[in-house]
Amino acid sequence: MSDVTRNGGRRAARKRDDVLAAACSVVAERGADATRFTDVTAATGVGVSTLQYYFGSREDMLIAVFRFAAQSDFDAVEARLGGVTGPWERLVVIASHLTGAVGSDAGWRLWVESWRWALRDPDVRAEVLGDYTRWHVLIAEIIAAGVAQGVFQTDAAPMDVARQALALVDGLALPVALGDPQVTGAMAGDLLADALGRLVGLRPAAAP
Amino acid sequence: MSDVTRNGGRRAARKRDDVLAAACSVVAERGADATRFTDVTAATGVGVSTLQYYFGSREDMLIAVFRFAAQSDFDAVEARLGGVTGPWERLVVIASHLTGAVGSDAGWRLWVESWRWALRDPDVRAEVLGDYTRWHVLIAEIIAAGVAQGVFQTDAAPMDVARQALALVDGLALPVALGDPQVTGAMAGDLLADALGRLVGLRPAAAP
Amino acid sequence: MSDVTRNGGRRAARKRDDVLAAACSVVAERGADATRFTDVTAATGVGVSTLQYYFGSREDMLIAVFRFAAQSDFDAVEARLGGVTGPWERLVVIASHLTGAVGSDAGWRLWVESWRWALRDPDVRAEVLGDYTRWHVLIAEIIAAGVAQGVFQTDAAPMDVARQALALVDGLALPVALGDPQVTGAMAGDLLADALGRLVGLRPAAAP
Amino acid sequence: MSDVTRNGGRRAARKRDDVLAAACSVVAERGADATRFTDVTAATGVGVSTLQYYFGSREDMLIAVFRFAAQSDFDAVEARLGGVTGPWERLVVIASHLTGAVGSDAGWRLWVESWRWALRDPDVRAEVLGDYTRWHVLIAEIIAAGVAQGVFQTDAAPMDVARQALALVDGLALPVALGDPQVTGAMAGDLLADALGRLVGLRPAAAP
DNA sequence: TATGAATGAGAGTTCATTCAT
DNA sequence: GATGAATGAACTCTCATTCAT
Fold it and tell me: Which residue of chain C comes nearest to D170, CA vs CA?
């Protein structure tokens, strides 16, 4: 394979990823069921046939979008966790990312779209549950570390606390995404921090 | 007019409600976007044009389903709360209902479908937020009563605790609905009870 | 048959005629093909079933409209011809009526709708040709009288001249109805009078 | 691109035109309002979706038919005028074409369909008025030439005479198209020639 | 590698009509 | 005499997909 070909391949792969990123926005805005090839076409300037060439069927494209979005989310959080060492602060980073308090709520919307698709598609379900577990494990590790460091105080299993914590995050993202006037982003952040603090047994001294 | 006419009207209204109930099942199973007139037709034996005669457009039918399901949910919980007086027990009733620990998870699925639709339709959003507030208020009243009776101990505003509690319920329903093998219904119930207890400051003496 | 019944019948017949008149307006505005029961319903407040009770099928209703409109037109012209005695003046009355220079162009539009329907429906064609002949005869009589009185001068058969005259009227109504900015109603009237004058050999002395 | 591609494009364009020509017949026979996609499908063997791919919506197809027919008409007359030089003869060519004395009356029917559509659609109206003016101008030029050559004798403006002449043609086409037994094609031709002669002041010497 | 042409399947909607009252 | 409920037929349109280039 010549350099030219390889460069072409790389360029093509990059273009495919660009299209994928644009498709994410479209799916986040319109919803997966309502996303047609034409919508992605309009958002990217790439023809319908080309999309099919890249992804296969429409369903394959949507699944590619879910996977891409999930990975992007995880990557983004890992990047933001990079310099943060305190268990409580790490928890807050994750929470604020997922509730969309930082960044747009496209991530959360795609998360919901993935859930929904997973309800009916076994393959997607497996992937979503896997991602779900990745979050649980990540959070559980933070909690275990917090307990070990004496920042948190709880005798519950870290994995259980992680499940409770992630449930809280997901559940609080809803009214924010819906634009509930009674639950603004800032309020949601406070409610979330307060509840997380109670769940992990945040010791008063460490409270903000 | 005559009794016959009135009965005819009543019978018609009942038939419409029967269709609506069946449509709820269909939407819960297939998802709102994927629910076609023909799907409801297959589930009810009623012709497509009759569905349109009853509901108007397909969208109107879906919205009718959302409304019907939300009201049914609320009615069911109120019925189940009928003989329950203890604040903690009342809270558990609500939680167990919403996570589908009792009854099918059709209710929760429809709840998710409503959210999703609400993200894009302002009218539905207003209704969903209204329903959301109804739950908040119901839970807040229980919490306030629990605090007054000394069963709960928290200095947070009951409405805020209610928001945290409902978020937990919503968030924990997700893995259950997805059939996460690591979070069965029973486990979710325990996790939920434990977390709710921490949030409302359930006094040890009252713990089950 | 009691008086009450007869009055009821008369009242019913009048109502039917009112509906028919309203239906004429609807057909003139929307065109026969595009006129639905619903459109007439909206214009009259009468329910669809009642329209069917009055007229039978939709097609029957349209044919009733054509017949009603044709008769109304003829009646209106005869009324306007009542006090007019001069052949040239009588001709002008007819011309001005048909081109819609006087009154709305609903009459002309319905005339066109009748033509079109007649192209495909033999029964309507027979009626339209009959009406057409009525106009020819009426005009031919006027021309014969004009020639007899020495107001017109032509050696052509009056019936032939009548056919030419009516053709002119019909043909000039078109651009007026279309709102051709180059052929206003007044201009059309002048063109028509001029051309009719030439066709019937209007003697200069009688020219306006 | 390549010859093959270009041929493909040309072939496609030709096919579209074939379909258009067939659609003209269908519209002429059934009327525009009554022309369904399936009617054109039956007449061409081309699938419904292909028609939509070619023309867009059903309305767009009808408008394409109108435009195509109008242009065809004009082209045909220009072709027939090719070798004819005498003003009177040229006038007769136009008249005989428009009344369908030569060729089928599909052209005239489509002309009527265009009028009708133009009554309700502003875009079509503009096009129809434009075509109308083209005919007016063509006829006016002939009349002016005839006057200049001394074949015609009239002091009216050529454009006005053209309007009268075209009105006559349109108006006489009606009974012919309707199959009025009292006005056969030949008679209509005579009536038309006679009336046109009077309108343009055809000098006896030049009469046929 | 990338894309336009063509097409079939399926959906929502309109509308006249029938039936019962 | 008049009308609402219910329903089947027909139509337009959208959209994913296949084929050829």
Answer: C171
Cβ-based neighbours of C157, under 8 Å, separated by 6 or more: none
Touching partners of A (3+ C-beta pairs < 8 Å): B
CA atoms within 13 A on the CB side of A188: 28
Residue-wise burial string across D137-166, b where 16 or more C-beta atoms lie within 10 A, e elsewhere: ebbbebbbbbbeeebbebebebbbbbbbbb
The model's pTM is: 0.88
pLDDT tens digits in sequence order for chain C, 208 residues long: 444 444 556 677 788 889 999 999 999 999 999 999 999 999 999 999 999 999 999 999 999 999 999 999 899 999 999 989 999 999 999 988 877 655 567 888 899 999 999 999 999 999 999 999 999 999 999 999 999 999 999 999 999 999 999 999 999 988 888 888 888 888 888 999 999 999 999 877 544 4
b/e burial code for range C120-132 (CB count within 10 A of at least 16 → b): ebeebbebbbebb
Domains and CATH numbers, chain B: 3-203 (1.10.357.10)
- Asked if D59 and D119 touch (Cβ cutoff 8 Å), the reply is no
Single-letter amino acid code for the residue at D146: G
**Residue D205 DSSP symbol:** G
Helix C3-30 crosses helix C48-55 at what angle (to 10 degrees)?
110
Neighbour count for residue D195 (Cβ, 10 Å): 28
Which residues of chain A lie closer than 8 angstroms to B164, CB-CB? 168, 172, 191, 194-195
Q: Which run of H or of E encompasses A181?
A: none
Please name the amino acid found at residue C201.
Answer: G
The span from the CA of B149 to the CA of B199, in Å, is 17
Q: Which two tokens stand for residue C189?
A: 């009237």
B133-192 residues touching A, CB cutoff 8 A: 133, 156, 160, 163-164, 166-172, 174-175, 177-183, 191
Q: Which amino acid is at C16?
A: R
CA B182 to chain CA centroid, nearest Å: 24
The CA distance from D1 to the nearest CA of chain C, in Å, is 45
Q: At what angle do helices B58-81 and B122-149 cross, to 10 degrees?
A: 10
- Count the neighbouring beta carbons within 10 Å of the beta carbon of residue B35: 21
CA–CA dist C61, A176 (Å, integer): 57
DSSP D121: -
Contact predicate C87/C146, CB 8 Å:
yes
User: Does residue D2 register a pLDDT over 50?
Assistant: no
Cα torsion at C110, C111, C113, C115 (round to 10°)? Answer: 170
Q: What is the pLDDT of residues A124-153, one digit of tens each?
A: 999 999 999 999 999 999 999 999 999 999
Name every residue whose Cβ is closer than 8 Å to that of residue D198 and which is 6 or more positions away in sequence: C198, C199
- Residue A196 CA to residue A202 CA, distance in Å, equals 8
**E-only strand ranges, A3-107:** none
What is the DSSP code (8-state) at residue D32? S
Q: Read out DSSP for C145-186?
A: HHHHHTSB---S-HHHHHHHHHHHHHHHHHHHHHT-TTS-HH
Tell me how far apart the alpha carbons of residues A49 and A37 are, in angstroms, rounded to a whole number: 9
Left, alpha or beta for C100 (phi > 0: left; psi -120 to 50: alpha)?
A: left
CB A20, CB A51: distance < 8 Å? no
Whether residue B126 lies within 8 A of chain A, CB to CB, comes out as no
What is the C-alpha to C-alpha distance for residues C167 and D167, in angstroms, rounded to an integer?
Answer: 7
Q: What residues form DSSP beta bridges with A152? A: A202
| C-alpha torsion D87→D92→D93→D95, nearest 10 | 130
CB contact at 8 A, D184 and C146:
no
Distance of alpha carbon C37 from alpha carbon A110, whole angstroms: 47
CB C166 within 8 A of CB D171: yes
